Amino acid sequence: MNTNMPFEFGFVCGRYGHAHLGHKLLMDKGLELCKKMYVAVGSAQEKGTLRNPFPVETRIKVIKKMYSDIPEEKLTIAGINDMSNELNRSTSWGTYLKEHIITKFEKFPDLILYGSEGDRSKWFKEEDMKNTYELIVPRDLVPVSGTKMRAFLVIDDEKSWQQYVPETIYDMYSELREELISTSVYKEIYDKICQNKIINMDTFMNLYNLYEKEDRMKKVEQLKQMQK
After folding, report:
1. How far apart are CA 63 and CA 198, in angstroms?
2. What are the residues facing 38 on neighbouring strands?
3. % of residues, the chain, pLDDT over 90
4. What DSSP string describes 133-149?
5. Under a CB-based contact definition with an 8 Å cutoff, are residues 66 and 24 in contact?
6. Directed axis angle between helix 184-196 and helix 201-227, to 10°?
7. Within a 13 Å sphere around the CA of 204, how many CA atoms are in the beta-carbon half?
């Protein structure tokens, strides 16, 4: 193992539902630069929902299988619950994350890695980051999303799905597809696609966008109620 890594402790956080090569690129960079990495799997309290259909155990299982050759002392993967819901990304979320990390590891990371989502670098207060570096890895290096990965599963496009995952999880395709389709919301989407008799990515995304709009409205309203 390379002992001349510039950072002692790296951190990355995401929902990973489920993880793909874009996520792996981010984690690979962290493992390359840090002696120890912590991958926090967010929205751990959710399962069977539109945005988080897979339980945290499945999401962690996928990542562990991607890195089955990396020892646990090098790579820690664990779930973390949302404060309220996934749209709450204020500095209070950063404080919550900081407390979680320090409780678990007795220190704060000296490197935090993000995808190119603009708001993630604003999670933490400026004073919390004075001894911590940030690295942003552009998402367009691997042009895929968790939503598209779930779409491939729903429309049963295994060949496209395989283009965006490492070979180490190829054998999880049927397991993940069955688990996804067994959730009520994705079973409903799948049934509607079948009724239309046009089973492709466009049909899925048109339906998904309608469901997501409604889901987002509910979560925004939930945050408003909590802030009153």
Report:
1. 32
2. 11, 76
3. 75
4. EEEE--GGGS---HHHH
5. yes
6. 150
7. 19
- 3-class SS of residue 119: helix
Lay out the sheet containing 34-41: strands in order across. Answer: 75-79, 34-41, 7-14, 111-114, 133-136
190-218 pLDDT, tens digit per residue, is 999 999 888 999 999 999 999 999 988 88
- Alpha-carbon span 1 to 9, nearest angstrom: 15
* Tens-place pLDDT, residues 163-187: 999 999 999 999 999 999 999 999 9
Q: Measuring CA to CA, how many Å separate 73 from each of 25, 80, 112, 155, 213? A: 20, 19, 18, 38, 41
> DSSP 3-state assignment of 17?
coil
pLDDT above 60: residue 137: yes
This prediction has a pTM of 0.91
Sign of CA dihedral 115, 119, 124, 125: positive
Length of the chain: 228
